[in-house]
Amino acid sequence: MRGELLSQMAKDLLNMAPKIASKPLGIVPFVVKAKVLQQLLQHLLAEQINDGELDFLVENWVAVEVPDLQLSFEVSFNEHFTVRPVTSPKVTFSANSSDLLLVVAGKEDPDTLFFQRRLCIEGDTELGLEVKNLLLAIDLQRLPVAVRTLLDKLAKSLLWLQTTSGADVQLS
User: Fold this and answer.
1) What pathway, per the record (predicted)?
2) What is the pLDDT of residue 2?
3) How many Å apart are CA 95 and CA 114, to the nearest integer?
4) Which partner for 61 in 18, 30, 89, 118 could form a disulfide, CB atoms 3.0-4.6 Å apart?
């Protein structure tokens, strides 16, 4: 009985957390979210920018959709990152927040999520593969220690909740 209760509570939390997080995120103006994303990308990919590894993104728009957070945007690069609402992407990446958190924290491989149909990549396949490989090359050690610690703890908590709930995949 106690195990069933714990399992149900974990399922409920997995279902409610994105809904709760999407409310304040929805209030933040897009221009603020775009500015934060641009600065984060500039910082995390500074080495790749300096090495000229982002030339493939010039005049190419890559969309990111996080349905459970009701968040979507597209990104391009031409000496600096530009983030805008989705209009005309060449490739679109779509996944729920929990799966993206696990990828960012290095706890899940994007290829695994793709084959499990938890990460969807639509559009220009070659561009999608280049973006995926670029993202895998990001050195998370460039993030402040507090942010790395938070990502790690969130990912471990998410994995524990998924295990406790008996969920094999992200609940929506």
Assistant:
1) Cofactor biosynthesis; ubiquinone biosynthesis
2) 65
3) 9
4) 89
